[in-house]
Design brief:
This protein has 684 residues and is an alpha/beta fold. Strand 4 and strand 5 (78-80) form a beta hairpin. The chain is globular. 58% of the residues are buried.
């Protein structure tokens, strides 16, 4: 067979959801992977990780056959078995647990290892058909989503393509160079047309390196910075009072509230000098066509949603939403109006079944009554698309839970992850080129479909195939179990009012771009009164919302520094890993070198450290050992550890999430990966 390029879509946990052109060298081998030039957001560019995808797809350690644990948990000793034996064993254990402890003792567990709706969310159809415990996905957007919706009312905003017409671009809480390279294409276009770039981030990452102004605030203090900026905007006449009167709820109350939120007040909280805050505010206020791109980074703390809301208020104060090249974007997730009832089995969901917080998996598996909502212990886990032993907060507690002898675990995976190593049954999963699926994006306005372009290796089965096979064995009934993945895609598209899959593929996606007035909320924000809410109803966004301040502020509920723990740790993404994915590939590991702690260079000198020295970072949950790297433009009390390395890559086998807390954020839970007070010591 001659080499040819075929269309596909990147499935990984990234806002860009890139359309791809993949070199197919035969029925079971690929060569180059390129970005499709037909999407105006991605413009033919892809990240280095995915450009090297043949390294992952054809990896020598890829799982190819079902396996059964032999010996004690954690011994990493497995033997190959047939699919029938594997599925029968899983089904028998799920039925046993259901009979002995009730259906809620079974917990199907998943996340965003694939972002395809069929392969990611189809597990919910099995969950709902059987009445197994629900799962609230809280690793990523549980804090940022409510924070944005509190003000704007919907997850949509200005199209990134407008950046080329912006006067000022502000990237706040997002390292786009490392985690969303396509955004930088449009940022650079804007800069070439005269725009200035401001980056607000606790450390000088690769995006901050490109900025005209980098503002390195202390983690968890974004709300204070936003309030001080708005103080200057009101005080110095940059607020658009006509726009405020027409489009916002309580502008006068907000202005009065902000009178004491001065740059000097914020400087003490954020670590950013008052004159820098004033300069940024004046630059923002004097540039009407200001594009604010906000990321998840600022929200991964206990006050994260409150921070997001405070920052999202800025374009409402200046009226930047009125102008082409102005406004803001968190994500375009609400553009696609997909009816996923068939995929997820929503029509058989019982609302009385408990829903467990995935970020509290360690507490749940170790019997925390509150995390279990007073219900039965979890006695069986069926896991797809995630690696909680590396990714979830409080790793030590998660591992302790997985080591329970009375807990049955099945993991459906592509590699023998640290979670798979603690399973009873391990099933081999397909990769995205080997199955059909439907994709939506948050970074752009395109609905996409991808069909399988090659045969799966070994005995790998897709998530959908495994769910359907298990459904037969455990007596789960739903029409979705009788359809192929492509049939699910086609019916979902039809029900949702979109073109057929072949048409979407032929056009490299279906464009969902909104008219200017709607994208900029000039027809009103997505609340019943059409107003942007400076004073949101937090209680409507989550059960813990009633505890939140009514107006933007610095809400001091974070794990703040103390005499014993004088540093704040954040754990942002690395450029060559994506959560724990790609940490198995040689090139990504070489590029990332090893687990490293970025430490302010003055702190390094005080402690007598030089680059490469080992340091120990710890708190009440434990400690980790890693290499020190000197950093500039980072607050002295801030420590940065990029990427989720496997626990085994750390010298003592304890990874960075051993230190992060599973305490939920506000208003509706959410992981607080960037909200950790720690101590730091030179390793002797």
């Amino acid at each position: 067979m001659c080499a040819e390029f075929v269309k596909s879509v990147c499935p990984h946990d990234c806002p860009s959801v890139c359309p791809l052109e993949v070199e197919r060298l035969g029925d079971n081998r690929i060569g180059k992977v390129k970005g499709s030039p037909d999407n105006p957001f991605t413009t033919g560019i892809i990240c280095g990780k995915v450009s090297r995808y043949s390294e992952r797809l054809h990896h020598a350690h890829r799982l190819l056959y079902p396996m059964k644990r032999v010996g004690p948990k954690g011994a990493d000793n497995f033997k190959r078995i047939s699919w029938d034996e594997a599925l029968n064993t899983v089904a028998q254990n799920l039925l046993r647990v259901e009979e002995d402890y009730g259906a809620e003792a079974v917990w199907p567990f998943f996340y965003a290892g694939t972002m395809g709706h069929v392969m990611r969310d189809g597990i919910n159809r099995l969950r709902h058909a059987k009445g197994y415990s629900g799962m609230q996905g809280t690793y990523c957007v549980a804090l940022s989503g409510p924070g944005w919706e509190a003000g704007c009312g919907a997850k949509r905003g200005t199209d990134v393509l407008e950046m080329e017409k912006s006067d000022l671009i502000v990237i706040w809480g997002l390292n786009a160079v490392s985690s969303q390279i396509h955004l930088m294409t449009h940022v650079i276009n804007g800069i070439r047309n005269g725009a200035k770039l401001v980056v607000v981030d606790p450390y000088q990452n690769k995006t901050a390196d490109k900025a005209h102004l980098h503002i390195p605030l202390r983690p968890g203090t974004d709300g204070a910075l936003a309030c001080a900026v708005m103080h200057v905007l009101f005080k110095e006449g940059y607020a658009d009072r006509d726009y405020l009167a027409k489009y916002t709820d309580v502008p006068h109350e907000l202005e009065a509230h902000l009178k004491t939120k001065t740059p000097a007040w914020a400087a003490d909280i954020t670590g950013v000098p008052a004159h820098t805050i004033e300069s940024f505010a004046r630059l923002y206020g004097s540039s009407k066509k200001t594009f604010l791109r906000v990321g998840h980074g600022m929200t991964r703390s206990r006050n994260g949603a409150h921070n997001m809301h405070a920052v999202s208020c800025l374009p409402a104060v200046t009226g930047a939403w009125q102008y082409e090249g102005g406004g803001a974007l968190y994500g375009q997730g609400d553009l696609a109006k997909l009816d996923t009832t068939l995929i997820e089995g929503k029509d058989v969901r019982d609302s009385k079944v408990r829903v467990l917080d995935q970020s509290r998996i360690g507490e749940i598996l170790t019997g925390h009554e509150g995390a279990l909502h007073g219900g039965a212990e979890v006695k069986a886990l069926f896991i797809q698309n995630t690696n909680p032993v590396a990714v979830a907060p409080d790793t030590s507690k998660v591992r302790k839970g997985f080591m329970r002898e009375d807990l049955f675990v099945c993991v459906h995976e592509q590699f023998m992850t640290e979670t798979a190593k603690l399973a009873d049954i391990v099933l081999p999963a397909t990769m995205f080129l080997e199955h059909d699926d439907l994709y939506t994006a948050s970074a752009h306005c395109t609905l996409q479909v991808a069909k399988s372009v090659m045969a799966a290796p070994g005995a790998c089965k897709s998530n959908h195939e495994v769910i359907c096979e298990l459904a037969k064995r455990v007596g789960a009934k739903h029409r979705g179990f009788d359809l192929s993945a492509l049939e699910l895609v086609e019916e979902t598209l039809k029900t949702s009012g979109y073109p057929v899959a072949s048409e979407i593929i032929a056009k490299t996606g279906h464009d969902l771009t909104l008219p200017f007035e709607e994208a900029h909320f000039l027809n009103g924000f997505a609340h019943p009164d059409g107003k942007f809410r400076f004073k949101p109803d937090w209680s409507s966004l989550g059960v813990r919302g009633k505890e939140m301040p009514a107006l933007p502020d610095h809400w001091d509920v974070i794990d703040e520094v103390t005499e014993d723990k004088p540093f704040r740790l954040i754990t942002p993404p690395s450029q060559n890993f994506l959560n724990s994915s790609f940490s198995e590939t040689k090139t990504s590991r070489i590029k990332e070198r090893c687990p490293e702690a970025l430490i302010n260079q003055r702190v390094m000198r005080k402690l007598g450290l030089v680059e490469g020295d080992l340091v120990r970072i710890g708190n009440d949950q434990g400690s980790v050992l890693l290499n020190a790297v000197a950093a500039k433009n980072q607050h002295e009390d801030t420590i940065v550890v990029e990427g989720i390395w496997p626990n085994s890559s750390f010298l003592e086998g304890q990874g960075i999430n051993s230190l992060t807390s599973s305490e939920p954020g506000y208003p509706n839970n959410g992981a607080v990966f960037h909200d950790t007070a720690v101590w730091l010591k030179a390793h002797k």
